[in-house]
Amino acid sequence: DQITMMTNDGDSKLYIDDLLFKMFNPDSTVSDFELAMGYYGFVLQPDYKPDKYIGLELQVMDLNNNHNWVKAKKYADSLITNYPTCLMGHVELSYALNSLQDTVQAAHYRRIYERLGDMIFQTGDGMSMETAYLVTGHKDIEVLTQLKRMTIKNRKAKNKKKSTFEIVTVFRNFEKVDIYFETSLITEFNK
């Protein structure tokens, strides 16, 4: 509730529109706190619908996989315009731009998702439910494991008290490891 109050106040330094602008321009003057407030604050907005853009996410991924980069770029741009905290959208837009030889813009969007990923990795260590990484989208889990150069072998959901988690089994350094992601912010909106 406090995040929502701060990010909805137009006079606040943490107003959501200002935070999203900073997120799209993640230079060294933008703090991890501001990124966190933008990332988590966006999904706490009253009109946020978590499942609204899943189909578009999947379309963009499919277009990139089929080397239809012009259309993937257009769709990914639309995706992150409407869902600016979508890590997968930034990854796919960066990939499409790079494939179209627009390396400057591709690097810009890569910096955005890498910086957001680094901020999310500071929310815990992912080794237990108590220290799980806090995410706002199921596709974010895929991006975060890719950033850590890990391949997902298995995924399962689990509830503990009023919290929901996704436990992802990966191989890290030739060892099978479970990584925990708290998905309570996602499931909260599906009620």
Protein model, in words:
The protein is an alpha+beta fold. Helix content is 53%, strand content 15%. A four-stranded mixed beta sheet has the order 1-4-3-2. A hairpin with a 2-residue loop joins strand 3 and strand 4. The radius of gyration is 16 Å and the shape is globular. The two termini are 17 Å apart.
Low-confidence stretches: none
Proportion of helical residues? 40-55%
Describe the main β-sheet briefly.
Answer: 4 strands, mixed
Helix and strand content put the structural class at alpha+beta
Q: Strands of the biggest beta sheet: in what spatial order?
A: 1-4-3-2
Number of strands: 4
Oligomer: single chain
Instruction: Give the overall pLDDT as a whole number.
Output: 89
Order of helices and strands, N to C? HHHHHHHEHEEEH
Number of helices: 9
Distance between the termini: 17 Å
What general form does the structure show?
globular
Strand-residue fraction? 15-25%
Radius of gyration using CA atoms only: 16 Å
